[in-house]
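Bumping with the actual sequence this time:
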Amino acid sequence: MHNKIDASFKFKDGLIIKHTYIFNLHKWVRQAMGLKDLLLGGFSFFKSKLNQHSNHLLEKYMNEKKLPR
């Protein structure tokens, strides 16, 4: 899989406090899920669900590691 991503980070006390990234969701969906799901990448509900799921996984990880918010 090859995905071009532009990312920026904001650090405080040696820790990442903000991470912003931009990438082509259509290309990512095609590579990650196959051609049949390519159309999903264009729908706002798909983007929203992907964002919610990613945030959930991050919260779960931070809770398990007892990391500050």
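The tokens above came from a reply further down the thread. The chain has a mean pLDDT of 85.
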